[in-house]
Specification:
235 residues; alpha+beta; Jelly Rolls; Arc Repressor Mutant, subunit A; 10 strands
């Protein structure tokens, strides 16, 4: 569902103080604004599939998105979680390749696509923007590299603890200061932690018994952050 009524989402992305586009000139913002499309995706909506061709830079205005690859037997491996003011699928765009993963909305989400040539035009004229984009991508690459090592070397408990901490870092906590602001299914949590769903369920139950967390359906509350961090560090 695409409509110009969603232009406010693009305006928010360009003018939010936390956005990499905030310091652009009015003319540069106008160039991007006049060459964008915003789309609302319902929960479970497919933003792009592996093999699709990028048409521009996908910016998440609000909502939550998972980026994943399908492995052997169709099992998903979640490689990244996107939060508001974040980018999706930028590697394929700048590498001029097709998407190597798929992206799906975890809840109702608004995305804006900045047309490729307009983005490149602004990047060529604004070195500061280019450097901010490089810094953001380099930071996420560093996180991805660390996650790759963790998912292959840590034991199940360490992997799940790290995933819970990653969700806290990405989406934050509710007003109670304990509940993670992301309500993943057990399957998604398992796919984020490189384990089977049954192992994720058993490990969550173990964490509950140890008073590390509490569960209320998909809501996960962190009861002892320091101990959970130790479990993650020990691996």
């Amino acid at each position: 569902m695409v409509s110009r009524k969603y232009d406010v989402a693009c305006d928010y992305f360009l003018n939010n103080p936390n956005s990499v586009f905030y310091h652009l000139t009015n003319e540069e913002k106008k160039e991007l604004f006049n060459n964008h499309v915003c789309t609302m995706y319902k929960k479970g909506g497919i933003i792009f599939k592996e093999g699709d061709k990028p048409t521009g830079l996908i910016c998440l205005a609000n909502g939550k998105v998972k980026i994943f690859k399908e492995g052997i037997g169709g099992r998903e491996q979640i490689v990244r979680m996107a939060s508001p003011l974040g980018f999706i699928g930028y590697r394929a765009l700048f590498a001029e390749q097709n998407y190597s993963a798929s992206a799906v909305a975890l809840e109702d989400s608004m995305v804006c696509i900045l047309e490729r040539e307009s983005l490149y035009k602004v990047m060529r004229s604004n070195v500061d923007l280019t450097m901010r984009l490089i810094k953001k991508m380099a930071t996420e690459l560093g996180i991805a590299n660390t996650r790759t090592v963790s998912l292959t070397q840590k034991h199940i408990r360490g992997r799940l603890a790290e995933s819970l901490l990653l969700l806290v870092d990405t989406y934050g906590l509710e007003e109670d200061g304990k509940t993670i602001k992301a309500y993943l299914s057990r399957e998604d949590l398992a796919n984020l932690s490189n384990m089977t769903t049954s192992n994720a369920i058993r490990t969550l139950s173990s964490f509950v018994t140890e008073n590390l967390i509490s569960l209320d359906g998909r809501k996960i509350s962190i009861l002892d952050m320091k101990r959970l961090e130790r479990v993650s560090d020990i691996g």
